[in-house]
Amino acid sequence: MPPAPSASPSVLDLAPVIPVVVLEDAADAVPLARALAAGGLPAIEVTLRTEAAPEAIRAIADAVPEAVVGAGTVLDAESVRTAVAAGARFLVSPGWTDTLLEAMRASGVPFLPGVSTASEVVALLERGVTQMKFFPAEAAGGTAYLKSLASPLPRARFCPTGGVTAANAAGYLELPNVACVGGTWMLPQDALAAKDWDRVQALAAEASGAAAAR
Prior knowledge:
single chain, alpha/beta, four-stranded parallel β-sheet, 9 strands, 40% helix
């Protein structure tokens, strides 16, 4: 039986830049999501690294219709269920196993499994998955590594995250096999601590504008 097609036909096309959000306080979720969406970054990945994450995803899903909220750091079937129940509209994992891939595929929610080697990419292609997260992007070889994968593995498309910054994002987005990037540079810690949503919106607008101009 041929592998099923990827369950993530459109995650990579949501936006050229996906903010990767770590929230300690779910009360910050809605104003943060509104600031990011108003700045032109409507696809938001809330990582499941904190206890507040499921509540934050639920709050964004309920109160910020202009945003497309997803869950990151999805590691197992339980976190898949938690994220989807909270309202996540896409899933992102730092890596993958067949068990995790099966759980993400069965959820019916678009997903990006993480890869960092050519062998992992080939294994996903064998399973019918063509859209992937490249992580940790800079540590795993950066733009040079992804560029080297484009010719032998032309069906694979990537969202690099991990070390992607305002300074190097354009270099990733210029690659033919990169559809979007994920990062935190529009979410500086001091702005989040001060709940300076205007600054977040301005930085989001800069990231969105730079990506659109590439």
